[in-house]
Amino acid sequence: MTHDSGMLRHILRRLLGLVPTLLMLITVTFFMMRMAPGGPFDSEKLLPPEIEANLNAKYHLDEPLVQQYFRYMGQIAVLDFGPSFQYKDWTVNELIAQSYPISLTMGTLAMLLAFIMGTMLGIAAALRQNTRVDYSLMGIAMLGISVPNFVIAPILILLLAVYTGWLPAGGWDWSLASMVLPVVTLSLPVTAYIARLTRGSMIEVLHSNFIRTARAKGLPESVVIRRHALKPAMLPVISFMGPAIAGLISGSVVIERIFSIPGLGSYFVTGALNRDYTLVMGVVIFYGVLIIVLNFIVDLIYAWLNPKIRYDEKH
Amino acid sequence: MTKSTDNSSFDPFEAALGVRDLKGRSPWEDAWYRLLKNRAAVCSAFIMGGMILLVLVGPMVISWESDFTDWDFTSSPPSFSSGHWFGTDAVGRDILVRTLEGGRISLLVGLVATLVSLIIGVSYGAIAGYFGGTADRIMMQVVDIIYALPFLFFVILLMVVFGRHIVLIFVAIGAVNWLDMARIVRGQTLSIKNMEFIEAARACGVTPWNIIRRHIIPNLMGVVIIYVTLTIPQVILIESFLSFLGLGVQEPMSSWGALVSDGAQDMESAPWTLIVPAVFLTVTLYCFNYIGDGLRDALDPKDRL
Amino acid sequence: MTLLEVKDLDVSFETHDGEVHAVSKLSFSIDAGDALAIVGESGCGKTQSMMAVMGLLTENGKASGQALFKGKDLLQMNVADLNKRRGKEIAMIFQDSMTSLNPYLRIEKQMIEVLMHHQGLDKAEARGHAIEMLRAVRIADPERRIRQYPHEYSGGMRQRVMVAMGLLCQPDLLIADEPTTALDVTVQAQISRLMTELRAKSNTAIILITHNLGVVAGLCDRVLVMYAGQAVECGTVEQIFYQARHPYTRGLLKSVLRLDQPGDTGLEAIPGNPPSLLSLPAGCRFRERCPQAHDACCEMPPMRRDEQGHTWRCFLDQVDE
């Protein structure tokens, strides 16, 4: 089939583009962390200079920066992220291993929630354009985009945890109850944005000529929407998935702090503040790879949905 | 029927038929008209105007200083009798004054960081769009890559590296937020560049500088205005996140984010410390978003989101 | 048997500049198997009148009057009843085939859905019919082509697919909105010939909307000329081409190049522009551009009729020399 070979070429092309992205990410973060004043051993009890020198030597912090860089690159090639400077008894690999399931689960659930709720609300609003339902839905969506999650979260905690006691106020023990508030709060801004995006896109698609043709063929409106309008309307939303994931990751940093969840995001912040180089790098690389892989998948889905892309690349 | 211009020498039939004089309307007038019809945007504009006035003038008018600790009334709820209309915080500082002064910082960050974004974004986008070809492709590829990365991580790193000086906050946030602007400007530049009237102008011997001045820049104005208005709330939001994490402006300066963060600590015992700055922050973001939306609808109706 | 009878059709649109009167008191009828051309310049209302009949007006549009299809008024029908007829008994095909076909669906899907919905065929049967129809419109290798997407076809092929799609359920009436305008002359001729053949085979009535008089002569029996939202002349092809009575029609004919004229004959354009549909003048709408306008033209001329059924909206009586 003509479009399948186009797909393959598209996939390969995308794969090749990933490598420089990852390299750039790692390099930029590495040098930025090192540019920060102060080192990992500054903040604690005042160390006698010889001990500090020994520590620095042990962790190769006295070598030229470029040398450290290549040493580090060699290490991560074998997936050794090194020891944490902050949490002395732990390696970064261990810290990541113990925290990523939480962050990943929270993020995935939030993404699913955002996508499903967002598209449903957006389509509902689009089909009732300029009615009260439309305006109220979009008004609420605007609120979701405008109110920061660290404002909504405390309010929800007050209402649903403190005053009523239905849900726990924090922590993550893998129980459904403990997952509800963090996941919902995390997903809110993304849900709102997706709702607005879907609504706009659906409205535009419904004004297309090919929708007019579908109606002229005597098809019932529900069929017209389901078969003809839905796919093109979803394309911008799929495109948005990449930035949406980035947004969720950003948001998770704050959410994890509010709900005292020991996820990757909180490790990043404390690591950055305490100059725990290896931990910060580890988290950045982990998230970086994740984002790149997920973006790649999103790209594939988009190309699969949009036959024009495959065609353009082939010719 | 009166006519403002006398066309009778050109069109005797039209004059005889007394057809209503249809005055031409420039696209800007069209857009202004559309904007005014958007109630949400107009409302928001008024509210924002009021907010800016409050924030600038309020602290000068209110009798309390923002760092004055009123030991008689620590953590007291809003009341007229105590003189603290919006209550006080744990050390007795008047919430209203603190919120308004925090507003000054938040809005200032919004404005300046947006300016930084604007300069970077417009230059980048215009260059990419103007040169086109490979340069454009590479530049946009870079934008795509950065777009997919979590901005907060970078801002946090930047803050950690460069410290918490307020100028650096402007730069850090602006540096992270220029992507949308660049994309839009590049798209607009590309489409303008290829329009026939540019070719026509060139064929008539208009110099490149005049082409840029008279044709390209006015056509960029529209999208730039829209995205400036939409960037301001994004930037204020980022700053508030930073403050919440403890990486924002330093004491004694305060911003809405920091105030909300503090308020969240005392949320159970003194909810007004959270609510007052939260409401101000939310209303501001809400209004800017509606105004930006309204501008977008007015200046580019087919771009409705 | 009268298939479609349009009576006093008015179509207007609410815009923020005011109310645009796209069609004013349009009346005509078409019999089974007939071929009627609706001719006029851009903006004269020919497309919007048919959109109104099909119930495809945009949200800000409204239609009044009657459009009796087989005796039932389409303008008064609810969407469900309209959908029973659209695509099945009346079909409409559109001008821009690139945007009128769904770029995200294969041609096959877009074609078989009409058959499956209206005639209850299953997928295999429908596919067979569709392939046959593609063959009838001269698409080569239809079994392979049908699985492709619209952007993989050329412009001429896409238009032929639209014609095929319109005729799948063998409708009684096919409305074709400028089907050949975006195509080059050779393809135009192909499509014309195609429609003539198909019409002969299945006795489908055709309403052809066009501003191209050349296409009209080959395909249609009768012509309706529209100007500024009104019908100004209606008659058989012979009557219109050789015995045009309305000054506008005569002006139109004069502006068309003819092979039998000497090579250096100039083109005679009609001076001026059509009136704004936001503020229509009182009286005859062609008045300001008419070389024979006189005082009586300040009143709206009635539609007049002669013994041969030729109608025209003018006070004058002129017959061609």
What is the name of the CATH architecture of the domain at 2-220 in chain C? Answer: 3-Layer(aba) Sandwich
Count helical runs of chain C.
11
The assembly state of the depicted protein chains is heterotrimer
Shape of chain B: elongated
Q: What features would you describe in this structure?
A:
The complex is a heterotrimer of chains A (315), B (305) and C (321). Chain A is mainly α and 315 residues long. Chain A has twelve helices and no strands. Chain A has helices at residues 2-35, 49-58, 65-77, 92-127, 132-146, 149-163, 176-206, 209-216, 221-258, 264-273, 277-305, 307-314. The longest helix of chain A has 38 residues, at 221-258. An eight-stranded mixed sheet of chain C has the order 6-7-8-3-9-10-12-11, sandwiched between helices. In chain C, β4 and β5 (72-73) form a beta hairpin. Chain C has a domain at 2-220: P-loop containing nucleotide triphosphate hydrolases (Rossmann fold). In chain C, α4 (107-119) crosses α5 and α5 packs across α7 (155-167). Chain C has helices at residues 46-54, 79-85, 97-100, 107-119, 123-136, 142-145, 155-167, 185-202, 213-219, 237-242, 247-254; strands at 2-15, 18-31, 35-39, 61-69, 72-73, 90-93, 173-177, 205-210, 222-227, 230-236, 304-305, 311-312. The model of chain C has no long low-confidence stretch (mean pLDDT 88). Chains in contact: A-B, A-C, B-C.
Write the layout of secondary structure elements.
The complex is a heterotrimer of chains A (315), B (305) and C (321).
Chain A: H1 2-35, H2 49-58, H3 65-77, H4 92-127, H5 132-146, H6 149-163, H7 176-206, H8 209-216, H9 221-258, H10 264-273, H11 277-305, H12 307-314
Chain B: H1 12-17, H2 27-37, H3 39-61, H4 95-131, H5 133-147, H6 151-162, H7 166-176, H8 179-193, H9 196-203, H10 208-244, H11 256-265, H12 272-299
Helix pairs in contact in B: 2-12, 3-4, 3-12, 4-5, 4-7, 4-8, 4-10, 4-11, 4-12, 6-7, 8-10, 10-11, 10-12, 11-12
Chain C: E1 2-15, E2 18-31, E3 35-39, H1 46-54, E4 61-69, E5 72-73, H2 79-85, E6 90-93, H3 97-100, H4 107-119, H5 123-136, H6 142-145, H7 155-167, E7 173-177, H8 185-202, E8 205-210, H9 213-219, E9 222-227, E10 230-236, H10 237-242, H11 247-254, E11 304-305, E12 311-312
Parallel strand pairs in C: 3-8, 3-9, 6-7, 7-8
Antiparallel strand pairs in C: 1-2, 1-4, 4-5, 9-10, 10-12, 11-12
Helix pairs in contact in C: 4-5, 5-7, 7-8
